[in-house]
Specification:
Blueprint (H helix, E strand, L loop, with lengths): L5 H9 L4 E2 L3 E5 L5 H8 L2 H7 L7 H11 L6 E7 L5 E11 L4 E8 L8 H14 L6 E7 L3 H10 L2 E12 L2 E11 L12
Parallel strand pairs: 5-6
Antiparallel strand pairs: 1-2, 2-3, 3-4, 4-5, 6-8, 7-8
Helix pairs in contact: 5-6
The structure holds coenzyme A.
Amino acid sequence: MSNLTSDARAGALRELATLKGLRVTLVPLGPEHFEPLWTGLQDEESARLTGTTAQFDRETVVTHLRRIGTAADRADWAILHAGTGEYIGEVVLNELDDDNAAMNFRIALLADHLGQGFGTEATGLVLDHAFSALGLHRVSLEVYAFNPRAQRSYEKAGFIVEGRLRDALRWDGEWVDAIVMSVLSTDPRPGAARVA
Ligand SMILES: CC(C)(COP(=O)(O)OP(=O)(O)OC[C@H]1O[C@@H](n2cnc3c(N)ncnc32)[C@H](O)[C@@H]1OP(=O)(O)O)[C@@H](O)C(=O)NCCC(=O)NCCS
């Protein structure tokens, strides 16, 4: 579906679908998710793993959450626990390159929910959607070398290592490489556990 028109892709981004898996449900991220999202933004380890140095204030985050609801160049989902409905993280496709049917991927779970398979399932659901409904050809990301859990999760979801950006991040005075990974629509991928 990489021949999807720009208008059709913009429409699918603006009217973002809910994606249902076995263990997680992805719903469009919005102001109603502010409190748990804000909690995640205060987590120092999450900031390190994502290389986030920006300081956010509440008003800026609320404004952002209102804006993304109708954005035609990005897709932001709240990751909800399928059993309890609890917010457990966010997952995002951004940096749309419409001409080349490509987007960037990022994900962050709240600290209590790491290492239990939720992230890999959410990633698979987003990739399924990216290559079907959004008609993308390429989804890429950067992950820091000090984050083997994320690298392993991405590999399980089908991402392939493309290369290494040397000393891409300086964290606490130490240089850290970023690993570039991608999935193409034509790559073989494990099937995501999507529920109709
Ligand atoms: C990255 C993230 C989304 C992955 O989701 P997750 O639910 O924690 O990952 P999963 O449980 O599905 O899979 C983790 C895998 O990494 C493995 N793993 C964990 N720690 C590891 C380590 N130190 N070295 C190598 N593998 C490791 C686990 O064993 C598991 O692989 P397995 O199923 O083959 O055993 C999540 O950990 C997260 O949000 N982390 C904090 C923010 C972050 O790092 N974001 C990504 C920035 S690029």
